[in-house]
Design a protein that fits this description.
415 residues; alpha+beta; Glutaredoxin; 3 domains; 5-stranded mixed β-sheet; 10 helices; 25% helix
Length: 415
C-alpha cells in the first residue's frame, strides 16, 4: 500500500481486532448440523444435503432498497449457474410482513424476481451478526467460505469457489473496531517535540469504512480528524459542505474534470466493477492528529489543503457557462387552478421546484430567477412542455438558456 506522509514522525499503533460476538461463525468455521429450515414458500432448506452446491444466505429487510433492487440480478445469476448455487433471502421480519411486501411490490412482480425466503429468523442472525444489509454468507462443503458485501456475489467468484474449493475475497465485518492513535507512542525518547501527524493512504483493509468529517478528542487535548476508505470525489464534496452550505444538487454538469482519468476519483455506476471492487483500488484514508480545537469548517480547510498537496490536485469552486433550465416570471395575470387527484405534488416555493427538477436527473441545472415562496401544485407531467403548461397558471415559465453557474473543478497539477 502506498503512503503519502507529512509529519515530523510517523507511527502506527496496533489495530484492535474486531469484537466477535459469542457463538458467531467466522470464515472457515464448520457450519453446524441443523434441522431443515422452513421457507416462506412452504419448502425447506436442508444445508446438510446441499453440500455439493454453494449456498448464499442473503440477509435483507424490506427497508433496504438496494437489497430489493439486487434480487432480479441474483435470480438471473442463480439461473445462469445451472443448479450449482442456491440463493436464499433471509430476514428477521415475520411471514405476514414479507408475504404482503412481495405481493404488493410491483418491481419484484414484474421482474419475477422473488427468491426462496427465510422469515422470522433469529438463529442464523445470531450465527452471522451484522449491522447493515445486504450481508452475504457463502456456505460450501459444510464450511463458511466467505462473508461479504453483496457486490461480491458474482459468477466469477462463485466459479472460483467451485473450482478451487476456497475463495479469497474481503470479509464484511460490521463489528471491527476502529484503530486508536496514541500520541505518546509517536514520541520517541530522542524527540519530544512532535506536535502532530498527518497520514494519507490508499484503501486500507484494516480500517472500517467511515465517511465524512469525523472528530475525536481525548482527555488531554489531542484531536484526531479522519475518514476511512472514501472515494476522492466523495471526500472533497463532504468536506466542502462544512465550509460552503449547499444550495443546489451537485449535478454532473456542475463538475469539471481536468484530469487524465476521472474514474480514479469517482465511481461510475455503469462500471463493470462493483463499488466494493472499485473502492479497494481507488479509495483513500486520511488522519490528522494534533493539539487544539477548530471549527468543523476550520478542520475541513486543513484537510482540503492536505489532500490537494499530497494528491497533486487543485479542487476549487469557479464559474462556467452552462445550458440551464431557468425559471422566469411571465408578464401575465396568474390564473389559479384547483388540481385534484392522488398524483398531485405540492411544492412550497420556487426553490423547492428547482430541487425537484435537479433531483429528477432529467434536466440541466435548474436556476431560480423568481425566488418566491409560492404554493405550487404539480400534476403528473412527462416533459418540459407539459410542466410549462402547469406553471403557466402561476405566471411562471421554464426556458433553456445559458447561464454562468458555480462548478466544482478537479485539476491535476503534477504529472
Amino acid at each position: 500500500m502506498k503512503y503519502y506522509i507529512i509529519a515530523l514522525l510517523l507511527s502506527f499503533t496496533a489495530l484492535a481486532e474486531g469484537q466477535v460476538k459469542q457463538g458467531s461463525l467466522q470464515v472457515g468455521s464448520q457450519f453446524p448440523v441443523m434441522e431443515p429450515i422452513k421457507l416462506l414458500s412452504g419448502g425447506v432448506l436442508d444445508l446438510q444435503s446441499s453440500q455439493s452446491k454453494v449456498i448464499i444466505l442473503e440477509f435483507f429487510d424490506t427497508y433496504c432498497t438496494s437489497c430489493i433492487a439486487s434480487m432480479p440480478k441474483l435470480k438471473a445469476l442463480q439461473k445462469s449457474m445451472d443448479g450449482k448455487i442456491e440463493i436464499y433471502m433471509l430476514t428477521y421480519q415475520d411471514k405476514n410482513t414479507i408475504e404482503n411486501f412481495y405481493k404488493k411490490n410491483k418491481f419484484l412482480q414484474e421482474k419475477k424476481a422473488i427468491l426462496p425466503t427465510i422469515v422470522a429468523d433469529t438463529v442464523l442472525h445470531q450465527m452471522f451478526p451484522h449491522q447493515s444489509v445486504p450481508h452475504s454468507v457463502w456456505i460450501y462443503k459444510g464450511l463458511v467460505q466467505a462473508i461479504t458485501h453483496a457486490d461480491y456475489v458474482k459468477e466469477k467468484y462463485l466459479t472460483d469457489l467451485l473450482l478451487k474449493g476456497k475463495i479469497d475475497v474481503p470479509v464484511k465485518d460490521d463489528f471491527k473496531q476502529l484503530p486508536t492513535f496514541n500520541r505518546e507512542s509517536a514520541i520517541t525518547n530522542s524527540d519530544k517535540s512532535i506536535l502532530g501527524t498527518v497520514i494519507l493512504s490508499g484503501y486500507d483493509s484494516t480500517l472500517t469504512q467511515v465517511s465524512g468529517l469525523n472528530i475525536n478528542k481525548d482527555s488531554v487535548g489531542n484531536v484526531s480528524v479522519y475518514f476511512n476508505n472514501m472515494d476522492i470525489f466523495g471526500a472533497y464534496t463532504s468536506l466542502w459542505t462544512k465550509i460552503k452550505k449547499p444550495t443546489y444538487l451537485l449535478l454532473p454538469q456542475r463538475i469539471v474534470w481536468n484530469v487524465r482519468d476521472s474514474s480514479r476519483y469517482f465511481y461510475d455506476e455503469m462500471s463493470s466493477k462493483s463499488y466494493q471492487e472499485w473502492i479497494r483500488e481507488n479509495g483513500i484514508s486520511y488522519k490528522r492528529t494534533q493539539f487544539g480545537q477548530q471549527s468543523e469548517a476550520g478542520w475541513a480547510e486543513l484537510i482540503l489543503h492536505d489532500l490537494n498537496t499530497m494528491l497533486g490536485l487543485q479542487v476549487q469552486w469557479t464559474n462556467k457557462e452552462r445550458l440551464c433550465l431557468v425559471l422566469k416570471r411571465k408578464n401575465k395575470r396568474i390564473t389559479r387552478i384547483v388540481r385534484q387527484g392522488d398524483k398531485i405534488k405540492k411544492v412550497e416555493s420556487t426553490s423547492g421546484l428547482m430541487f425537484v427538477l435537479d433531483f429528477s436527473g432529467q434536466y440541466p441545472p435548474a436556476i431560480d430567477e423568481v425566488e418566491e415562496k409560492i404554493n405550487l401544485e404539480l400534476s403528473t407531467y412527462k416533459n418540459l412542455d407539459e410542466l410549462n403548461t402547469i406553471l403557466d397558471s402561476y405566471g411562471l415559465e421554464l426556458v433553456l438558456e445559458n447561464r454562468s453557474i458555480e462548478v466544482l473543478e478537479f485539476k491535476e497539477i503534477i504529472n
